[in-house]
Amino acid sequence: MPLEITSLKNPRIKLLTSLEKSKERKELGLFIVEGIREISLAQQSGFEMVTFYVCPEIFLQDKNYLVNLDGQDVLHLPSAIFSKVAYRENTGGIIAIAKTKPVTLNELSKKSNGLFLVLEKVEKPGNIGAMLRTADAAGLDGVIVCDPATDFFNPNVVRSSVGCLFTVPIASATNQEVMEWCKKNEIQICATALTASKNYHLIDYKKPTAILMGSESEGLSDFWINNAHERIIIPMKGKIDSMNVSNAAAIVIFEALRQRGS
Questions:
Q1: Which residues pair with 144 in a beta bridge?
Q2: Number of structural domains in the chain
């Protein structure tokens, strides 16, 4: 029988809420997954679940996103307690604690004609989550963030990605490591830049390619501008030469897919 939790002061509840903090996630190697779809996708991707927090009054299995609770550590929470610990309203009555996984470049599959999205200085969890959604829609071979300190398991990344954190290969590394990885695997580097750039649709994306995006405010650093094989630009007609980074990424990525016949 699942253990029923009736107090917010219960140690199991305190563990759950503590994982909102980066320090706790890194020290424990654990993170929060909210929602039936997200938990189901995490399980399908091989993430190990540690504990499930279930509100029996709300929880109902979804035939499209089944959650495996067999043999798992399941805790039951009344709705009054569950509503206090759930960040979202549409969790479907279930939250899980899962173990993190390594996110190094070595974890990415070496495909003969890979297409990757590389992000530099894109720090906001919501933007990273949105990029993962774009990457999932395009079936990319990986999303790489040029910052070894990036916390992919930040609850806001998990939430904003609506589960795509678990469907897209991910990695974080330094600029130098990513550049050397691209060179080793013969991946052309296409860096978005506002100056000395070609129109994005004039580039040949049929070869192995890494599409680089910087922050909306600063763009890419000189490191990538100087080391790129191609510098590309999306022509804009407005008065402000800035576009949401996720939208910009989608434009270039789907041009690459068009050229590849995908």
A1: 118, 171
A2: 2
**Cα 116 to Cα 118: distance, rounded to the nearest angstrom:** 6
Helices (H), the chain: 11-18, 22-28, 36-44, 79-85, 125-138, 155-160, 175-184, 222-227, 245-260
pLDDT in tens, 67-110: 999 999 999 999 999 999 998 888 899 999 999 999 999 989 87
Backbone angles phi, psi at 8, to 5 degrees: -70, -15
pLDDT tens-digit profile of 227-262?
A: 999 999 988 877 666 678 888 999 999 999 999 997
158-167: b (≥16 Cβ within 10 Å) or e: bbbbbbbbbb
Residue with tokens 């000189």: 222
**Domain of residue 32, residue span:** 3-99
Q: Are 125 and 251 part of one and the same domain?
A: yes
Alpha carbon 164 to its chain centroid, in Å, reads: 6
114 and 228 housed in the same domain: yes
- Tell me which of 99, 130, 165 is where a domain ends: 99
